[in-house]
Amino acid sequence: MTETAPWLILACALFNLAFGVFHLLFWRLLGWPASLAAAGGLNRAVTQTLNLMLCYCFFAVALALVLAGDGAVGRGLALFGAGFWLLRAVLQPVFFPMRRRYSAVLLAVFVAGVALHGAAGLGLDP
């Protein structure tokens, strides 16, 4: 396996960082916690807590990718990321109606995440 281009690992880190910021914006974008009121207090708390934990994971993976660099550990983290984004892409049409434009756009972004992380993890340099 060849060395991964350092810019690919950095691109993966930035991709995860961007999704962490995107998830932090859910309170404004989705009108939380008011829009979660109908879900009940427990579901509201669980949803917001899980979202914050996901943000933490996005930021931690971004930092770990930067620190690990383009060696074996960085490639392994990138492959983990490819699996994460693949699962997220598969789940998109299951849980979100694809008749909405933003659902299709997000699906395309998730597939791009699979390609980006997969290329970095496999040591490809497009």
How are the SSEs placed, and which strands pair?
Blueprint: H1 6-24, H2 26-29, H3 41-68, H4 72-95, H5 101-122
Helix pairs in contact: 1-3, 1-5, 3-4, 4-5
Q: How would you portray this structure in words?
A:
The protein has helices at residues 6-24, 26-29, 41-68, 72-95, 101-122. It starts with 5 loop residues before the first helix and ends with a helix. The protein contains five helices and no strands. With 126 residues, the chain is mostly helical. Helix content is 77%, strand content 0%. The mean pLDDT is 95.
Q: Summarize this, please?
A:
The chain is 77% helix and 0% strand. The chain has 126 residues and is an all-alpha fold.
Largest sheet entry: none
Shape: globular
> Which structural class should the secondary elements be placed in?
mainly alpha
* Distance between the first and last residues' Cα: 15 Å
Low-confidence stretches: none
